[in-house]
C-alpha cells in the first residue's frame, strides 16, 4: 500500500479513537526495584504518593522485566524485540543491529509526537547513537515536556528515569555516602528501622543485613517523593486529564539474589497505569483494580503504538496488552540472563501465572559469582563471609544462592512458594507439577526457536560471525548472508548440559561446529569436574581452532590437572592480550577464577590491569574489574573502586 495512504488511515483512526486531541503518554521508570510498595502489600514500605497513584490506576500483578539487569532489558524495551534475538543480551556490549530496527518512539515522532527522555538510555548496541537520534527530540538530564521546542498543544511521549533506587545507592555506595546523599532527604519518621525488617530466608539475619535492607527501603521512599514531583508538575501544567501515565521499574531490586537473577525477586516489577476519564475506555479494568495478565517489557513498545492507533512494525516481537487490539492473554513470558559486566553466565526462564521455570547452562557457577561492582556492597560481602564461615549449616535457600554451584533446572510453584525457595526440579513432583514442568520446557523451546535466541552462541563465536559477514547477527540468522549458525543444533547440544550421557557429550566435542564443541565441554565439565582420565581424553581440545573452546578447555585443565596446568596456563595467557576484548575478558576471567593456580600469570595480569584501569569504555572497565580482582586476591596492590558521586 502507498505509504501516504497508510499514514492517512493512521491519522483517521486516531481521530476516530481520540477525537482531535491525542493523549500524551508519560513513563516514570524507577531503577532496580521489585514491587516494594505499599500498594503491592509491602507493609514495611513508605510510599504514600505511589500508593495514592495506585488507587487511580490499574495495578498489574504479573509484570516482568526482560532481563534482571538494565541494559539488556532496555535494549528490549526500546526496540520491541528480544535482546537475545538481536545479539544485544550481553551486558553493555556493542554489537550492531539492523538499520530496519528502530526505537519505537521514532514512530511516535513521525506521527507528530514530541518525545523526550530524561535521562538514561543504555540501549546496549553499537547503534545506540542512531536509536537516540531517531527516537528522541530531546534526551538529556533536563529533557521535559516543558521544553521550549515543543509546540503549543503538541502531544508528547515523555520518559523520566528515577535513579535513587539504583543498586549504587541501595548497596554499592559506602554507607556514609548513602546517608549524606539519600537518607538526608528523609524526615526522621520516614527513615526505616532495621529492627522491623523482614529478612528473606536466603539472607543471614545479621545486624548489617538488616541495616542494608532498611537502606534499600529508604531509597524507595525518596524515589516515591521524586515520582510525586513529576506527577505534581503534570497537574500544575493542566495535563493530567489528557495524559496516560505508566509507572514501572526496570527490573527487580539491586539487592543480592534479586538483580542479575531470573527468580521473581529479580524479574517481577510493579506496573501501574493511570487512564484519565476521557481514556478510560482503553483501560482493562477500573481505577484501583488489579489485572493478572502476564506482560513483559518486549510488549511495551507495541502496546504504546497500538494504543495510539499506530501500526506495529512486523519485526517487533511483543504483544499488545492494552486497547481494542489486545489479543488474549499469553500463557508464558520469557526471560534471559547472559554475561553481566565481567561475569559470564547463560540462563533462561519461562514464567506462567502459576510456575517459574529456569534453565541454567553454566550450572558449575554459583548464582553468587564474584562480581566486582556488586561485591563493593557490604551486604554482598556479609553474605559471602557468612556462607564461608557456616558452609555446613547453611539453610537450603541460603545455599541455593551462595553455594558453589546451582542445578541445571529450577522449577517453582508460585502459589505455594512465592519466594522461589523450593526447587521442584530436584524433588518428587505431583502429576500436575510434572505436567506443568513438561509444558514449561516445551514453551521454552518454542519461544527460543521463534525469536532465534542467540544467547546459545559463545560471545566470541557470535562476534566472529559478525566480523566475517560484516553485518548484524540478526541479519545473519535470518538468512541475509552466506553463512549462518545452526541454532537448532547448537541449542540441542546445550540442552545436554546437566542431562546428556558421557558418550553423547564426547560426541559433541568431535563435532565440526565450534559452538557445539563448546557445549560438549561445558556438559562434561559440569558432569565430571574432577575426572583426570577424561581430561587426558580431551587434551587436544586445548589446541582447538575456536578460541572459546580453547579457553574453556584450558581453564578446566588448569583447575584440575597438575600434569598439564603449566601448559594450560600458557594457553590462557596468550589470549590475555587479544585484540578482541571479549576474548581477552574470557581469558582474564578464567585467570581470576583459577586464583593461585594461575600465579604464573601474575606479571601479565598486572600489566593488563595497569593498561585498562584508567581507560574509558566498558571493555576496559570489565577487564580492569577482573584483573584487579585477581591481583587483590594474590595480595598485590590495586586502586580501590569508588563509584560514589563526585564532589
Shape annotation? globular
Distance between the termini: 57 Å
- Give the CATH H-level superfamily of the domain at 22-322: Alkaline Phosphatase, subunit A
Structural class: alpha/beta
The unreliable regions are: 1-19
Radius of gyration: 25 Å
Mean pLDDT: 95
Describe the protein's architecture and organization.
The structure is a single chain. The chain is an alpha/beta fold. Among the domains are: 22-322, Alkaline Phosphatase, subunit A; 575-642, no CATH class. The protein is 41% helix and 10% strand. The chain is built from 26 helices and 13 strands. It has helices spanning 3-18, 48-55, 70-79, 83-86, 105-110, 128-135, 167-172, 175-181, 207-236, 264-267, 300-307, 372-375, 378-389, 396-402, 431-451, 459-469, 473-477, 487-494, 502-509, 514-527, 532-537, 547-560, 565-574, 581-594, 602-612, 618-633, and strands spanning 24-30, 58-64, 114-118, 138-139, 156-162, 243-249, 268-274, 290-291, 295-296, 333-337, 347-351, 355-360, 409-413. Strands 1, 2, 3, 4, 5, 6, 7, 8 and 9 form a nine-stranded mixed β-sheet that branches. A hairpin with a 3-residue loop joins strand 11 (347-351) and strand 12 (355-360). Helix 22 packs parallel to helix 24. It is globular. The model is unreliable at 1-19 (pLDDT under 50).
Amino acid at each position: 500500500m502507498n505509504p501516504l495512504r497508510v499514514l492517512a488511515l493512521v491519522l483517521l483512526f486516531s481521530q476516530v479513537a481520540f477525537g482531535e486531541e491525542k493523549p500524551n503518554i508519560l513513563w516514570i521508570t524507577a531503577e532496580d526495584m521489585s514491587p516494594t510498595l505499599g500498594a503491592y502489600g509491602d507493609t514495611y514500605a513508605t510510599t504514600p504518593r505511589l500508593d495514592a497513584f495506585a488507587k487511580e490506576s490499574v495495578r498489574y500483578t504479573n509484570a516482568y522485566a526482560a532481563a534482571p539487569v538494565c541494559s539488556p532489558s532496555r535494549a528490549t524495551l526500546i526496540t520491541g524485540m528480544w535482546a537475545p534475538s538481536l545479539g544485544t543480551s550481553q551486558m553493555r556490549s556493542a554489537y550492531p543491529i539492523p538499520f530496519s530496527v528502530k526505537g519505537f518512539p521514532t514512530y511516535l515522532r513521525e506521527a507528530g509526537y514530541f518525545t523526550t527522555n530524561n535521562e538514561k538510555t543504555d540501549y546496549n548496541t553499537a547503534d545506540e547513537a542512531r536509536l537516540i537520534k531517531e527516537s528522541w527530540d530531546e534526551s538529556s538530564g533536563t529533557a521535559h515536556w516543558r521544553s521550549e521546542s515543543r509546540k503549543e498543544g503538541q502531544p508528547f511521549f515523555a520518559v523520566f528515569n528515577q535513579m535513587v533506587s539504583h543498586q549504587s545507592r541501595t548497596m554499592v555506595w559506602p554507607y556514609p555516602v548513602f546517608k549524606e546523599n539519600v537518607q538526608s532527604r528523609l524526615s526522621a519518621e520516614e527513615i526505616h528501622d532495621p529492627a522491623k525488617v523482614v529478612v528473606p530466608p536466603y539472607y543471614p539475619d545479621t545486624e548489617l543485613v538488616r541495616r542494608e535492607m532498611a537502606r534499600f527501603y529508604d531509597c524507595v521512599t525518596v524515589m516515591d517523593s521524586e515520582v510525586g514531583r513529576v506527577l505534581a508538575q503534570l497537574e500544575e501544567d493542566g495535563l493530567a486529564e489528557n495524559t496516560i501515565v505508566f509507572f514501572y521499574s526496570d527490573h527487580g531490586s539491586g539487592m543480592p539474589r534479586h538483580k542479575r537473577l531470573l527468580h521473581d525477586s529479580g524479574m517481577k516489577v510493579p506496573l501501574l497505569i493511570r487512564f484519565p476519564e476521557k481514556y478510560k475506555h482503553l483501560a482493562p479494568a477500573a481505577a484501583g483494580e488489579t489485572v493478572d495478565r502476564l506482560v513483559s517489557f518486549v510488549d511495551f513498545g507495541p502496546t504504546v503504538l497500538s494504543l495510539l492507533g499506530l501500526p506495529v512494525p512486523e519485526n517487533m516481537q511483543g504483544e499488545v496488552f492494552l486497547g481494542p487490539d489486545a489479543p488474549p492473554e499469553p500463557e508464558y513470558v520469557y526471560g534471559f540472563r547472559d554475561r553481566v559486566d565481567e561475569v559470564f553466565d547463560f540462563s533462561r526462564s519461562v514464567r506462567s501465572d502459576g510456575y517459574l521455570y529456569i534453565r541454567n547452562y553454566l550450572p558449575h557457577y554459583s548464582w553468587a559469582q564474584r562480581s566486582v561492582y556488586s561485591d563493593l556492597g557490604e551486604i554482598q560481602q556479609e553474605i559471602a563471609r557468612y556462607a564461608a564461615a557456616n558452609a555446613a549449616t547453611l539453610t537450603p535457600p541460603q545455599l541455593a544462592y551462595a553455594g558453589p554451584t546451582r542445578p541445571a533446572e529450577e522449577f517453582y510453584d508460585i502459589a505455594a512458594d512465592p519466594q522461589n525457595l523450593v526447587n521442584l526440579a530436584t524433588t518428587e513432583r505431583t502429576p500436575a507439577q510434572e505436567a506443568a514442568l513438561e509444558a514449561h520446557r516445551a514453551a521454552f523451546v518454542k519461544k527460543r526457536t521463534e525469536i532465534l535466541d542467540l544467547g546459545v552462541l559463545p560471545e566470541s563465536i557470535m562476534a566472529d560471525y559478525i566480523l566475517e559477514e560484516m553485518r548484524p547477527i540478526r541479519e545473519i540468522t535470518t538468512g541475509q548472508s552466506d553463512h549462518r549458525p545452526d541454532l537448532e543444533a547448537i541449542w540441542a547440544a546445550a540442552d545436554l548440559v546437566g542431562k546428556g550421557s558421557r558418550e553423547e557429550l564426547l560426541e559433541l566435542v568431535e563435532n565440526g561446529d565450534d559452538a557445539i564443541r563448546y557445549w560438549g565441554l561445558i556438559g562434561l565439565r559440569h558432569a565430571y569436574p574432577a575426572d583426570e582420565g577424561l581430561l587426558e581424553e580431551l587434551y587436544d581440545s586445548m589446541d582447538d581452532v575456536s578460541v572459546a573452546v580453547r579457553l574453556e578447555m584450558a581453564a578446566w585443565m588448569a583447575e584440575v590437572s597438575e600434569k598439564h596446568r603449566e601448559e594450560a596456563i600458557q594457553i590462557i595467557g596468550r589470549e590475555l592480550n587479544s585484540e578482541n576484548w571479549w576474548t581477552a575478558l574470557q581469558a582474564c576471567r578464567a585467570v581470576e577464577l583459577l586464583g593461585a593456580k594461575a600465579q604464573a600469570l601474575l606479571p601479565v595480569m598486572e600489566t593488563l590491569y595497569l593498561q585498562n584501569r584508567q581507560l574509558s569504555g566498558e571493555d576496559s572497565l570489565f577487564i580492569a574489574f577482573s584483573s584487579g580482582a585477581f591481583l587483590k586476591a594474590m595480595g598485590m596492590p590495586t586502586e580501590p573502586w569508588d563509584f560514589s558521586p563526585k564532589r
